[in-house]
């Protein structure tokens, strides 16, 4: 009985905890493709332009609220779980734009390709929750 009373007394002294944490991003924040359009058929090098609204772009290393920098995922699945806890791996399928760039020119082989954008923090780690674009598909002739 004393144990229950002690637990109740401790619970009453603890500050109230909100049932839901505040999101990292403003409600209207989004990342998207300006170009190419989903379903586009292109030839040669592909001009890709990144869109961002509700938050800002800043170079890697900038540790401020409501900013990040782009990462372009090419023909890979959206990172999930533990993959979101570490810096995104740079390579042929994950392009880093740590200088704050908002566009690039891709040299993709002919065929269908899936593209997606994900914002990274100062250290290339996706935010919690991650800010990702819809996946678009393009065809390179």
Automatic annotation (TrEMBL):
<dbReference type="Pfam" id="PF14347">
    <property type="entry name" value="DUF4399"/>
</dbReference>
<protein>
    <submittedName>
        <fullName>DUF4399 domain-containing protein</fullName>
    </submittedName>
</protein>
<dbReference type="InterPro" id="IPR025512">
    <property type="entry name" value="DUF4399"/>
</dbReference>
<keyword id="KW-0732">Signal</keyword>
<feature type="domain" description="DUF4399">
    <location>
        <begin position="48"/>
        <end position="141"/>
    </location>
</feature>
<feature type="signal peptide">
    <location>
        <begin position="1"/>
        <end position="20"/>
    </location>
</feature>
């Amino acid at each position: 009985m004393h144990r229950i009373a002690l637990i109740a007394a401790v619970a009453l002294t603890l500050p109230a905890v909100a049932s839901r944490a505040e999101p990292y991003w403003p409600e209207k924040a989004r990342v998207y493709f300006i170009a190419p359009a989903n379903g586009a058929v292109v030839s040669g090098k592909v001009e890709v332009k990144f869109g961002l609204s509700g938050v800002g772009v800043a170079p890697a290393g900038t540790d401020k609220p409501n900013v990040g920098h782009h990462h372009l995922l090419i023909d890979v699945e959206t990172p999930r779980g533990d993959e979101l806890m570490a810096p995104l791996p740079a390579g042929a399928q994950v392009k880093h734009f740590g200088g704050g760039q908002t566009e690039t020119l891709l040299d993709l082989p002919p065929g269908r390709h899936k593209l997606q954008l994900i914002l990274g923090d100062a250290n290339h780690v996706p935010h919690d929750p991650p800010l990702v674009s819809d996946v678009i598909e393009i065809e390179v002739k």
